[in-house]
Amino acid sequence: MTALSLLISGGLFYPGEHMNSSDELLAVRAAELYYDEGRTQDEIGAVLHITRWKVGRLLAQARTAGIVRIEIVHPRARRVLAEQAVKKRYGLNDIVVASSAGVSSPDELQRRVAQAAADYLTGLRPAPQTLGVSWGRTMHDVAACLPRGWAHGVGVVQINGGLSLTKTGDTASATALVIAQKAAGSAHVLPIPAILEHTATKRSIERDRAIAGVLDRAAHAEAYLFSAGVAGDDSALVHSGYLSTAEVAGLVRKGAVGDVVGRFIGADGAPVDAELDSRTVGLPLERIKASDTAIAVVAGEGKHAVARALVTNGLCTVLITDDLTAAALLDDAAAEETISECAS
């Protein structure tokens, strides 16, 4: 059963509902009897000497006015009102906002959002025949959360290079393999680095028949599932040995807010360093923007800026995120509207 938390207060702020002081006190008392003591509406009517119809109206007013707030705290609960607001504001096709209630660490929040992404992918109908996927810690968690049989016969293709340059292991190809295996499908991986030292080397490798075949398959995928990385010391591209912390700091000075499929972007959704971008192996951002189904999985405070870049520049059609990130996106939208009104 889904867990609920309930708050009953006697505040005086009533959005969309106006009650006199007598009804206000009755609404508080009715709510206490109904939610705290588990009384029926008939029993409450007898206690308060009012009709059952009046009790029902008071309980409805208590919810509308904010006297009673009910919060679903199950780890897989969703924030429906936040979903509706963000979806409308940024013109998304779909969105899932996971609850952060009870979360004790950033890693736990990331796993909760990863589970939401796995649930969304499992429920996607029709399931894509070809799914392009990125890599990273969030995507690793999504793959782990997917149930066996989430779909059948899906071809999973890695959309950006990710061969690790460190001893931490190669999670890029493993992510694609796990997602494919759990769908009784096939995996097509890119066993090459995410960033090469020379543009000429990258162009030469991409002309290789095997690599070109994977990239072509990626370009024609029906749907994409990817995460976004931070522009900082904790970047997966730093941990994998592609960039130093000093190099990432330089990208931040150029306006980088994070990376999407290995490409560091600014608030405008475009790569901030053309030379680095020319050495980055994988699907260009323009292809993701052109897709009908581009699912971005973003969690945590450190990714608020890159999440905003994604939704404001059409880099995703579906956003899977947490309620704190959703709130930040709505705060940003409200601030923009205020600035616009002042300018006019």
Q: Mind explaining what this structure looks like?
A:
Helices cover 47% and strands 14% of the residues. Strands 3, 4, 5, 6, 7, 8, 9, 10 and 11 form a nine-stranded mixed β-sheet that branches. Strands 1-2 form a two-stranded antiparallel ribbon. The radius of gyration is 24 Å and the shape is elongated. It is an alpha/beta fold and 344 residues long.
Short descriptors:
9-stranded mixed beta sheet; 2 domains; 11 strands; Arc Repressor Mutant, subunit A; 344 residues; elongated; two-stranded antiparallel sheet; 15 helices; Rossmann fold; alpha/beta
Question: What's a concise summary of this model?
Answer:
This protein has 344 residues and is of the alpha/beta class. It contains 15 helices and eleven strands. The chain folds into two domains: 4-72, Arc Repressor Mutant, subunit A (Orthogonal Bundle), CATH 1.10.10; 80-343, Rossmann fold (3-Layer(aba) Sandwich).
Topology, element by element:
Layout lengths: L3 E5 L12 H16 L4 H8 L3 H14 L2 E5 L7 H11 L3 E5 L7 H18 L6 E4 L3 H9 L9 E4 L12 H11 L4 E3 L10 H9 L1 H11 L3 E8 L5 H4 L5 H9 L4 E3 L2 E3 L8 H5 L6 H5 L4 E4 L6 H9 L5 E5 H21 L1
Helix pairs in contact: 1-3, 2-3, 4-15, 5-6, 6-7
CATH top level label of the largest domain: Alpha Beta
| Assigned CATH architecture of the largest domain | 3-Layer(aba) Sandwich
- Estimate percent helicity: 40-55%
Uncertain spans, ≥5 residues at pLDDT below 50? 10-17, 338-344
Largest beta sheet, briefly?
9 strands, mixed
Rounded Rg = 24 Å
Class by alpha and beta content: alpha/beta
